[in-house]
Structure formats: structure tokens, C-alpha cells
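Hey Z.,

So I finally got round to the L-tyrosinamide thing we talked about over coffee. Here's the setup:
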Amino acid sequence: MLGTANATAGTTPAPTTAMATGPGGSGGGDDRSNTAIITRTRTRTKRPSLYRVLLLNDDYTPMEFVVLVVERFFNKSHEDAYQIMMHVHHNGVGECGVFTYEVAETKVTQVMDFARKHQHPLQCVMEKK
Ligand code: TYC
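And the result:
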């Protein structure tokens, strides 16, 4: 399990230092040999997998609603949101953003819930990059 051990990003664990005692020290355990044990575990960082969040075209969802969705849930300007909407309208599918798994999943759920609430058939999906 070399690849998965200690996978906290960006941290270096402090050395674990056993008590070293001076000559004739009265500590407990290894004071007879006056030794210290210093161990350091190697920090392994792994970049997370990334996921595209996509909107799918349909014949019924109003263009202005799609623009609002892209502005609201993907933090795009009105101009960028309009361009993304038109890309989806013409090509059938388009990318709104790239996120880690849990963030992408949240975006998909938010968009689908919002579309359903307004009774539009807009579809939002995620795919691994
Ligand atoms: N095709 C829709 C229309 O003409 C607009 C639309 C764009 C719908 C993008 C969905 O993801 C979409 N009203």
C-alpha cells in the first residue's frame, strides 16, 4: 500500500522522536543504551481526478433559463453563459466547468433540482476527464 499511505496533501508529518536520555539518565525504557529512534514517514500527495460538468441540449428549455443556470451554478458572466448556452444549442452538449468528484456531483444535483422545480427538461451530467 505504498501509494495510498499518508496521502494528506501538502503536509509533512513531524518526526516522531523517542526520548533520548543523557548518560546515566533516569528515563524509562531505552536509557541503558542511550539511543534515540527518529522516524519520518514519507508524504505522498495525489492529485484528485477531475470531472467535466456538461449541459445537454433539448428542444424545450428556454435559452434564458439555461443562461441563468450557467450564471448561477457555474459563476459565469452573462456573456460567457450566453456563449456556453449557444454552444450547447448548436452542438448538443457543452462544458460548464471542471471540478473534483464531489463538487461536480453537487453541481449536477443543483442544476437538475433547479430545472425540475421550474418544469424544464434540461439535463446536466458529469464525465471523467
Ligand atoms: N435548444 C433550446 C431552445 O431552443 C435551448 C437550450 C440550450 C436548451 C441549451 C438546453 O442545454 C440547453 N430553446
